[in-house]
Amino acid sequence: MTVLETTETRPIACTDSEWAARLKLAATYRVFFMLGWHELIFNHITLRVPGTDDQLLINPFGLAYDEVTASNLVKIDLTGKVLSDSQYPVNPAGLTIHSAVHGNVPDAHCVMHIHTTASVAVACMEEGLEDNNIYSSQLHGMVAYHTFEGTTVHNEEKSRMVASLSNKRLMILRNHGLLAHGATLGHAFVLIWTLNRACEIQLATHSMRGKTLLVDPQISERSTRDALQYDPRFGGGDQVLDALIRRLDRTDTSYRQ
């Protein structure tokens, strides 16, 4: 049984498609926790409510990632107005970043933002991401950069963030962390996983002696074209995310509540 094939009694009233989205999003929060991609109660994964353009599901502010469930996810509009029955507020910083992307990129159905040690370290480097490994070589021309403006709670930064993102799926927020958006949860996940993995390798490489061996840009361009896991027509990462959710299901299914 996958997260989209469920027979549980729903604790909240919603459509079949919204409940399926809630299940997979809650499971993804638990996967992030399993991978160590959580930041206390901060950071976010947002998902458009199926069939809408201006409604999102977001984690309840105040809960850790391993406390997120399908029913306690908060439904909001792009202004942050809560549309579901929830005892929890929404983090203003998360709303600013995620609503900017969802509101201006038509196929940004999922937006992910992380602060892993490796990703923040690379975001603090003037040269940013270095193309020196198989993971970075699959992201040729796919990564944008946005200059740090402080805590992201000001609406006037939204337009500058969207301009920085341009037509890219990935963005390194300078001095801050990573952002990815995708056509599905799995699509966004495999993108941000690859970028974070490239950051991890860069962090390890720079701790070693010797000169870094960079990848030829032409090789990276070809490698990126050949990386079909980023193409929604070929699953767009859903197979990867589903495998991790199956692993989660073998130990903890409380996210289904």
UniProtKB/TrEMBL annotation:
<protein>
    <recommendedName>
        <fullName>Class II aldolase/adducin N-terminal domain-containing protein</fullName>
    </recommendedName>
</protein>
<feature type="domain" description="Class II aldolase/adducin N-terminal">
    <location>
        <begin position="23"/>
        <end position="203"/>
    </location>
</feature>
<comment type="similarity">
    <text>Belongs to the aldolase class II family.</text>
</comment>
<dbReference type="InterPro" id="IPR036409">
    <property type="entry name" value="Aldolase_II/adducin_N_sf"/>
</dbReference>
<dbReference type="GO" id="GO:0051015">
    <property type="term" value="F:actin filament binding"/>
</dbReference>
<dbReference type="InterPro" id="IPR001303">
    <property type="entry name" value="Aldolase_II/adducin_N"/>
</dbReference>
<dbReference type="InterPro" id="IPR051017">
    <property type="entry name" value="Aldolase-II_Adducin_sf"/>
</dbReference>
<dbReference type="GO" id="GO:0005856">
    <property type="term" value="C:cytoskeleton"/>
</dbReference>
<dbReference type="Pfam" id="PF00596">
    <property type="entry name" value="Aldolase_II"/>
</dbReference>
